[in-house]
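Tutorial, part two.
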Amino acid sequence: MQQESRRTYLPAAGLDWLLSFYDPVVKLFGGGKARRTLIDQAALQPGHRVLDIGCGTGTMAVLLKQQHPDIAIIGIDPDPKALARARRKAKSAGVSVQFDQGFGDELPYSDASFDRVFSSFMFHHLPAEEKVKTLRAVLRVLKPGGRFHMLDFERSQHGAHGFIARLLHSSELMKDNSESRVLSLMNQAGFRDPRKVGERAMLSGHVAYFQAVA
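Running the prediction step on this input gives:
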């Protein structure tokens, strides 16, 4: 944990002082509906072990547990302030979710230990050099035949991605989030059948759904 604390990371809301606004803003701009679609795509079954990487304030992990009480869910994020909110959120909702502090490219879990891994609105935060490392870490912890499900802002052909996305996320980070680039990175990491499975327009920008098989 001491080594992790020396690594830099982008807080869940981009800046620490924005954290209290993060959940209401995401909800206002359609994040809840977008995440519910992501969960539906995963076809979760009782007994599944599920990991939410870059879980932030825990909204996705708590929603997963509420909708599927018979799964085991772990959320991981490097931001201790966001994780504190996530734990309070889970307690308030009356659900059991394990929240761990850590980075997506150094997942502290055994090989082949999860049936599903989720990522929502996180991938575009990663520096280019960490993206394939993170995807390889996800592949390592997935069971054979397990699936990775990802929702994120998608860079359009014209490079536009919405006011909130422009406000919180630099164009330098967004340039790696085109469909072709994301699928290429998944292929490089060793996933089978990476594909885009959906898209939607949100007030905060265009988002896309991706999935791949371990």
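Residues 14 and 168 are 6 Å apart (CA to CA). In part three we will examine how such features are distributed along the chain.
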